[in-house]
Write a structure and sequence with these properties.
disordered N terminus, single chain, mainly alpha, elongated, Serine Threonine Protein Phosphatase 5, Tetratricopeptide repeat
Length: 310
């Protein structure tokens, strides 16, 4: 998942002190358009508010969010800073400025803004999570884990936090705690496809294939026909030595998602192992058509094609 999680809080309330109701109407329309993700129209409405009242921090903040969502990070940073110059304790603006700075490559500035948000509001779970993501991206896994754990204390069983916590633990080669964190998620949300899928992945990575297979099957009960789950389940069966069941799952993945290059490639590998070489080559061809630049797909396609010519 993407490391940055923007807190798209649309500051509500009336645009106080505007002449008549005109600015208030622009502000409300901007909020409605932002909720619809009509960012360019929202930008125009927020700018109309600021023409009447340039000192309105919520309008600067909402404009910044809309600009960031529209892809204009430089302008968004300027608007977040303007909001903060008017309202220095604007915790959401510190958080989102931090994310915008991280996206621009200013990691030190980003960390400073996220920490400012947490000084103002130590119980701001999103800021702990975002700071954890930044620290993990910089390789400071111990500090990242501390931030993720604080985020989980504030938002127990939050899916994104648990997933990133587990990933960070995995990077520290702490597979046991990563699996324990994911089991906690499954225990709290037994109806969550993502929880079972991610736990299955962690178990498979730890070579705990039987429980991984069980988790993938539970995930498929919650989301039948999911290609990624079928593909991973097939791989778990293959690693376990059950090639026939692996083939069933790989074929299911290809059927569910014909444009999934990895599913075609894995089916090709399994078919080649089984000795069905021409069928395997067809799958390698299919994978390569979807991802023509994949060196692994190309090498196996050429190797098998050459072998079949002799």
């Amino acid at each position: 998942m993407k490391a940055l999680v923007l807190t798209l809080l649309i500051a509500a309330g009336a645009a106080r002190g505007l002449s008549g109701d005109k600015g208030d109407d622009h502000f409300r329309r901007g909020n409605a358009l932002a909720q619809q993700h009509n960012w360019s129209a929202a930008v125009a409405e927020y700018r109309a508010v600021l023409e009447s009242r340039p000192g309105y921090p919520e309008a600067h903040y909402n404009l910044a969010n809309a600009l960031e969502a529209e892809g204009d990070g430089t302008a968004a940073i300027a608007e977040f800073r303007q909001a903060l110059s008017l309202k220095p304790d604007y915790v959401e603006a510190h958080n989102n400025l931090g994310l915008a700075l991280e996206a621009s490559g200013d990691l030190d500035g980003a960390a400073a803004e996220l920490r400012s948000a947490l000084r103002i509001r130590p119980d701001f779970a999103e800021a702990h999570f975002n700071l954890g993501n930044l620290l993990a991206a910089r390789g400071d896994l111990s500090s990242a884990l501390s931030e993720y754990r604080l985020a989980l204390l504030l938002k127990p069983y939050d899916a994104a936090v648990v997933q990133n916590l587990a990933q960070a633990l995995g990077r520290k080669n702490d597979a046991g705690r990563a699996i324990a964190a994911l089991r906690q998620w499954v225990y709290a949300r037994p109806d969550s496809f993502e929880a079972h899928f991610n736990l299955g992945n962690a178990l498979a990575a730890a070579a705990a294939l039987a429980p991984a297979i069980a988790e993938y099957r539970l995930a498929l009960l919650l989301k039948p026909g999911d290609a990624a789950t079928q593909d991973n389940l097939g791989y778990a069966f293959e690693k376990k030595g059950d090639l026939n069941r692996a083939l069933v799952e790989y074929r299911g993945a290809v059927s569910s998602q014909p444009k999934d290059a990895k599913a075609h490639y894995n089916l090709g590998r399994a078919l080649e192992t089984q000795g069905a070489l021409e069928a395997a080559l067809e799958q390698y061809h299919a994978a390569l058509e979807i991802e023509p630049g994949n060196a692994t797909f190309k090498a196996d396609d050429q190797r098998l094609a050459a072998a079949l010519k002799h």
